[in-house]
Design a protein that fits this description.
The chain is an alpha/beta fold. It has 2 domains: 120 residues, Rossmann fold (3-Layer(aba) Sandwich), CATH 3.40.50.2300; 110 residues, HPT domain (Four Helix Bundle (Hemerythrin (Met), subunit A)). The protein contains 10 helices and 5 strands; from the N terminus they run E-H-E-H-E-H-E-E-H-H-H-H-H-H-H. Strands 2-1-3-4-5 form a 5-stranded parallel beta sheet, with helices on both faces. The two termini are 18 Å apart.
Amino acid sequence: MRTPLTILINSSNPLITQQLQHHLNTHSPEIVCTHTLSGHLSILSQSIFDAAFLDLENPHFNTTQLISQLSAHKPCHLIAVISRGQDLPLMADDHPCDDILTVPFLTSTLKKIIVQITKLQQQHSSAPLSPDFLIPLLIKTQQNKQLAQTLLERCFDDFPKQLSEIQTSVNQQNIEQLQNCAHKLNGSAAFCGLTSIQQAAQKLETFAKNHTTKQLASALESLEKALQSFFDHQDQLLEQLKD
């Protein structure tokens, strides 16, 4: 069964939001709408999106900051929504948008974007499942699949929130908070036998402890990739434990 697309719409213009919802609903995606930066950050800490439509005229957020945060949640496909004739704002070179949708937009254009998002989702979901996520956990739980499932479900609930706290700590250069957050994630991942996540969190914790601030960005990127791989396989992992 194909997994429904999960799409974020971020706009302060209710007309744009309504139009996008109307057209996207025909493709049966899960749609989340927000118009403020605080609302967006709260949603990002709890969900992973296949695509995000960003109204670049929204006065409630910093475009570069928002795109940077969403880019950490790949395979999120970023679509800039602009008025016809509007110039794209300057954005960080390493965080460009993947598509541009002009308002008023053509249904055919939106359909092409949805097809592209669906292809990317299917490619990503077909990635090979890492044995790192199940074998050590089943060893720790003595092959108790029900207990392993409970622990994994807790991780899928808690890890996005912990990642958001770590990202905020790095952005604010709050080293003490970063060390505490990374230590917490390190412990949780180690307890569940999630080796790649545990090692990435441990490295970040060590850099924070030693105040090696120049290495924080690359260590955070490694942690984000390890967690993203874990999140991408959520359905597969839980399904295997139901056997």
